[in-house]
Protein 1
Amino acid sequence: MFSFHLFCRANVTVTDLEEVQDLLKMNIEKNQHLVSGSIQAKVLKWGEDVTDFLPAPDFILMADCIYYEESLEPLLKTLKDLAGLGTFILCCYEERTMGQNPEVEKRYFELLQRDFKLQKVPLDEHDEEYRSEDIHIFIIRRKKMNISS
Ligand SMILES: C[S@@+](CC[C@H](N)C(=O)[O-])C[C@H]1O[C@@H](n2cnc3c(N)ncnc32)[C@H](O)[C@@H]1O
């Protein structure tokens, strides 16, 4: 059983591309009553510098971010640059069967497992109302590096 109480007094940064910042800010405003800590929107293009987001966060929530081939390497770079050994990455995605999506998902998990270990959250532990056979949730942690000379 996985039990995270993420939203008690968390300091949250929501990120996306420049062109959707207004939408992020609108979402923050509409959900402000649910936030007891702090929340801010910032631009983060995957693969680019993450200095502004360090030290490594306790949690990274990734919802539906695995869907196009060109983004895989930059997305994984961002995860590697951001996540420390203590960081929990919660990754959820909807399995898509159209076009290149099955290959993109397969490739993402191949590349991911070079540096991260994965634990699948069983369906019976998903939210009762929103669970669905084609929606998957993983808890992802950084692997400890073997430092050899
Ligand atoms: C399928 S949407 C999911 C949005 C949201 N997480 C959700 O679950 O509703 C994918 C999001 O990834 C963002 N995105 C796509 N490519 C990106 C990139 N290279 N760097 C940062 N964000 C990117 C898109 O702008 C979009 O908001």
Protein 2
Amino acid sequence: MAGFNLIHWDQKYTVHVDAIDQQHQKLFDIINDLIGRYEENEKKCYDIIEQLVDFLAEHFRVERRLMLEINYPAFAAHMQQHDNFMNKMEEFIKACRSGENITAEMLAFLENWIFTHTTNVDTKYGEYLLKIRPKGK
Ligand SMILES: [Fe+2]
Ligand SMILES: [Fe+2]
């Protein structure tokens, strides 16, 4: 199977809130770390998946607060995406707890969801934010 490509954050993915951009960069770092471990055959996933889920839970809370604060029109649909993703993560956590290794399928899903959501969905509230607060922040 072909290897995974690492993901890189770029200024064009900004959501115009520095703290959230930093979280997105950290999220990409965690995914890249996971890919590195996977490819070095260090496939035990428990710690890093737990770390990822804790970090994401906090990240989703921060986004939720922001979207509520700015009365973001697509709030409900965005929350639904976070919830669906967390449900899927639950399955991975269960597998990890029972000692299963990281699988290519798990990693592909994580990488794809996080990259796509961050660069296509989160950026939409960034654009909205910019529209209502032209200077950002
Ligand atoms: Fe995000
Ligand atoms: Fe989001």
Protein 3
Amino acid sequence: MDDFFSLFDSDGDGLISFEEFCELLRHHRAGRTRDVMRAYFAKLDSNGDGLIDLEEFERWWNAAKD
Ligand SMILES: [Ca+2]
Ligand SMILES: [Ca+2]
């Protein structure tokens, strides 16, 4: 789980920025437009501060597993 988080968090500051989020999804050739990615990012960023912390990430991860 932490390993997966750090995959996104390329600068290791414990937060996933939108740039980091886009960067990883681009590697995975998600083929998404920036607008779609922004909407998706906003879904993960539940407190709306523009960054995804580990808690938000875990909430999304646990929801996605079901
Ligand atoms: Ca980061
Ligand atoms: Ca947040």
